[in-house]
Amino acid sequence: MEYQKILNTIQEELSYRNTTGKVASYIPELAKVDPKKFGMHLYCRDSGHYSIGDSKEKFSIQSISKVFTLTMAMQLLGESLWERVDVEPSGDPFNSLTQLEYEQGIPRNPFINAGALVIADILVSNLKNPKTDLLEFVRKITGNQEIDYDLTVATSEKSTGYRNYGLVNYMKALGNIKNDVEPILDFYFHQCSLAMSCEELANAFMLYANGGILLENGEKILSTKRVKRINALMQTCGFYDEAGEFSFEVGLPGKSGVGGGIVAIHPSKYSVAVWSPILNPKGNSELGMAALEKLTTLTGFSIF
Amino acid sequence: MEYQKILNTIQEELSYRNTTGKVASYIPELAKVDPKKFGMHLYCRDSGHYSIGDSKEKFSIQSISKVFTLTMAMQLLGESLWERVDVEPSGDPFNSLTQLEYEQGIPRNPFINAGALVIADILVSNLKNPKTDLLEFVRKITGNQEIDYDLTVATSEKSTGYRNYGLVNYMKALGNIKNDVEPILDFYFHQCSLAMSCEELANAFMLYANGGILLENGEKILSTKRVKRINALMQTCGFYDEAGEFSFEVGLPGKSGVGGGIVAIHPSKYSVAVWSPILNPKGNSELGMAALEKLTTLTGFSIF
Amino acid sequence: MEYQKILNTIQEELSYRNTTGKVASYIPELAKVDPKKFGMHLYCRDSGHYSIGDSKEKFSIQSISKVFTLTMAMQLLGESLWERVDVEPSGDPFNSLTQLEYEQGIPRNPFINAGALVIADILVSNLKNPKTDLLEFVRKITGNQEIDYDLTVATSEKSTGYRNYGLVNYMKALGNIKNDVEPILDFYFHQCSLAMSCEELANAFMLYANGGILLENGEKILSTKRVKRINALMQTCGFYDEAGEFSFEVGLPGKSGVGGGIVAIHPSKYSVAVWSPILNPKGNSELGMAALEKLTTLTGFSIF
Amino acid sequence: MEYQKILNTIQEELSYRNTTGKVASYIPELAKVDPKKFGMHLYCRDSGHYSIGDSKEKFSIQSISKVFTLTMAMQLLGESLWERVDVEPSGDPFNSLTQLEYEQGIPRNPFINAGALVIADILVSNLKNPKTDLLEFVRKITGNQEIDYDLTVATSEKSTGYRNYGLVNYMKALGNIKNDVEPILDFYFHQCSLAMSCEELANAFMLYANGGILLENGEKILSTKRVKRINALMQTCGFYDEAGEFSFEVGLPGKSGVGGGIVAIHPSKYSVAVWSPILNPKGNSELGMAALEKLTTLTGFSIF
Prior knowledge:
Chain A is 46% helix and 12% strand. By secondary structure, the first copy, chain A, is α+β, with helices and mostly antiparallel strands.
């Protein structure tokens, strides 16, 4: 079956009416999103673009941005990055502080909030204008100069981000945060507020499906080794404490965000992004998970 | 570079002299193994067999056996299996009891000891002669009728297996163990004592690299979906709390045992087994990890 | 107000009809006890005996027996006892295994199950006939030669004691259990099955209210220092994870059991035992807690 | 033996030379204190004042101040206070965040940092000038109008108080903090910086040894019930995760601070304060613990 037909089938079979979850409510701005939204975009390396539904509508990518900031930090620090954050699945809810106590402030991986905040600290240390540089990086790999932060969302996050303030202060007490708390969180709340559509996300993640090379112009952005490592991290840690479930049901490396977006890649084959704001109890898009499971079932291949 | 050359390079570059770990000592019989042993066998689906060192010498496969028993339990119970064991990485040392307390006796995955004991309980419930049936299954997929338990090892495990007795009793108190404690542990200590060589392990795991079909005769043993799920579980949970590290450095689904064996597969490409009894602090073969990392570096491809 | 009037007031004001808890059900024999039972006996050092209700009816003292076995172990080992068990409140449900993992098999105190099992192990190591010796000790301090184990209860405990089997095996794996598992648990299930009435318990605990001297005949059984330490342990650890609450509301050292008994002492003043089988969610007698709170309120003094 | 002789004996037998601990270093100002300092003051309700060493020298009372703020909060809120903080021992290091996760932001007791911060939040909510009111309360019960904050210490705490910032933010995320973070921590860092001598502390704590009545003028400040409850809390929770040890060795309700001070009371008999800045690994004054153990041994009585 070809990709467009598969996407059409997914659109027919899945409906927000059958979901049991809820739109994220802890950030006021996210709670306003229409739960009926549903979009999907698949970018095949060899045969191009396929999409359904609200695939061109921008949403808050939230934690998906952690893949971009990790990529930038790896480029800046190389292997020494791993002295400050580990690469193991967390086995705990995504905002847990427990593990930090037992492991001296070293977060388990760069995709839990604690780890992403250490990455933010690193970017604040090493870049003059981290917010501008992140935008530039994302615009470049997406091939779209208009991608931007949603400042209303960024402000909204800040007003209720006590848990993240708690995390940064706690890790600072444990010695794994170098900068002042405010610039780190300012950067972090901005990165989470990045507004992108499924189409833009699929374009951006083609970098990771294509071995670190920009498909549009052949420019080598990331070494093969680094791409593999980022993909491996998405496989084992990309879905909070549902990473095993996603790997088990879908079988692709991916990353989700509480805005309801999920992006996944099939190395050398395609990148795909899906968006539906209704979340399951673990904080991942309910329809998004189902859509990607259908995708790998109908295409007949996962990476396994 | 072709596989035999790559294996030769691995053999030249790795030496037990440079290790810092120790042979497993908690089971008396395992402590007697010569730490200098080193063997590796790669079975390529298209081009056949390659090996170095002690690849034909049998050793105690220990936790690698959990892949076989999981496969049998999936065949017996189907999806209902997942009501009794989860599919998430553990994030905790391999014999941890903590998680069970918070999750009502449901082990996080079938590859931690608690999970494997639930699998053993299931096989004891559903099979008349679980020890015989396991042998038969392993002999069949390996194509070798002489594979057997090492009864000295099985007895040795029993004499010091208090932790496993603790686990089974505790899960029985929590309602997730149905049979008496003794037959479950008798089966479990036997499965861990299975003696196989790298060559035999690579032969057996070709089943998982080849989509559930016995390469030798084309017999379909496992559905494609189940193979993918087992491979996904090996990817996210196969290495205790070093699963992320293995995925990050090697990028293949695999499973290790405290006997010093590691097996890994590259779906549709090859299965590979390596053996060196010296373990790193997380309980995985130190040289085995290094050998597989070199393998994917030198071959230039992981699944990512 | 004198003691008998206070007990009468307690009897009038408290009724099983107003309880919301349940009789212990995890041991089949305990589940059979009539929930309407209620008795109380106060033994004043200076003015003698006072009682109400079912104060002469025997019940299963369960964890209250841990005070007796601790006393015997202190007499046998002296200070070296504290290398194998700590003296800190647990902060965790009474059958938690978590803490043992982080503290290498050393239970937090001798009144949680793990600690009492280490004490049982010590008695099994140091006594030829621990079950006989315990009976003798309890009979002596109670002044009643007919106190005995309830063998039906002991057998009932064994049939469902998987959690305790789990604990002993786990601590054996961690090196803090020296004997075989069976004799330890046989002793432990017997100690828990001791059948005593409120009157007998108050008589026995006068030893701890009277500085280690048998009030009946002036015999010095325990050093003043040891009595104080046992009383301090009852104060901080006698009520599972409700020890703070009991200290806060009642203000006396005491010990409860899942059979619905509670015993408490006011040093140099009195010992008191109360029995009502209905338990609150933390596993302590609901009416027993209320009765003792009323007692210290109406008498106008706690140890604080 | 009379009290002055006992204090003299303590002074002779204890020396900072035999300690193995260290002065608190996490607050820069505290690290500057002379480790050789040692003072003790006992205030007997019936026979007056006794002292040795540096008993008139002021030091930073730190966590001892938590008893004062708890007293004020109990007076303001009555029983409803206990909806926001529990009364159980923590069983965890004093700055642990783990427990908060499992208990929805309700600290285990008012003497761990999290609990004291909730108390601070309550005072900030209910008082116009909490810092002034606290000073007034302490001055009143001590009978000394010159007691004051040490602003250098308060500033020093703020500069390194990331852990406390972490705690407050985290509890705010969980809904158990009502005010902005800054005024709460400003108040908290001030309360910890209170500078008092052993003599002043013994004077202040006579309130708790004397049933809530100011001994100097007979004024009833606290109800008997509240005094007993505060004393019970000091008994079970006053020494971080060494509360059991203190109860076991000393047998008095008390409270310690990382400035090296410890205060304890014997209800109806005396209050006593001791100061030596060298701390044991649990954060309590090493010589202070020893001095109080000697005191109850030599006087021959604890509350047990």
